[in-house]
Design goal:
Elements lengths: L10 E7 L2 E6 L10 H9 L5 E8 L4 E3 L4 E11 L5 H14 L7 E10 L5 E6 L7 E3 L4 E5 L2 E7 L3 H6 L5 E7 L2 E6 L7 E12 L4 E5 L3 E6 L4 H7 L3 E13 L13 H4 L4
Antiparallel strand pairs: 1-2, 2-3, 3-6, 4-6, 4-9, 5-6, 7-12, 8-11, 8-14, 9-12, 10-11, 13-16, 14-16, 15-16
Length: 268
Amino acid sequence: MRIVNLENKDRKVVAEAGRFKVLEYLRDVSVSPDTASTEYFMSEMGVRRRQLIVELDGSNRVVTQAGAMQWFAGDVRAATGIKGVGNLVGNLVKGAVTNESAVKPEYEGKGYLALEPTYKFIILVNIGEWGGGMTIEDGMFLASDDTVKNKVVGRSNLSSALLGKEGLFNLSLYGSGIAALESNVPGDELIEIELNDEELKIDGDMAVCWTTGLKFTVERTTKTLIGSAMSGEGLVNVYRGTGRVLMSPVALTGSLYDATNSLKAKPG
């Protein structure tokens, strides 16, 4: 099969790993007079459409977030990924506590798979390089090799559930293979902190993903409530142990993509 004009002067592959490629729309010319100005300045600021392209080679399946598929071509077959009633119930529970879709479609065969464009950044991660696994923020999972497994991990104590901004549960990816993650922050801007039996304290939900083996709690900045109130810091997210944390350099003041919802629905 030959695909013409997937890349051109306005669309370029900006990252690839394994069978996964990230196509970035450097300039989106599928615009109307009403949106041309907005699209131009968005592109200049790096707010661009990005699309995951997977070249299926007949080996392992590719797992995607539900509803993410835009098109596929070739001898490609789709399946639900559900292996029975028990598996469905488990996925429903997992989806309910992590805000991920309960059913993740799987694609196999030989051909091409393209997912819906997104204004978020797509980060390709080799999960095998994360040892015991990588825990990710809710809603980040986009696709992966089926050799990447997942499980739900909970907070280390009740205070994390009641007081933290990270939620009670997160999705942990482990095994081997490539995972594609959707991030509000470009991968080359994330700060990586390596801990060696140490601790990291963050004021806010700036951690994007972290080594699953790290102990994560939410604690006061000082030993007393009065001290925390006087310092003006309050509560912090604490990561302890040996592993890595990828952190946003600044706290997000709001979704970068709220102002572009109307553009997502237009053709192209």
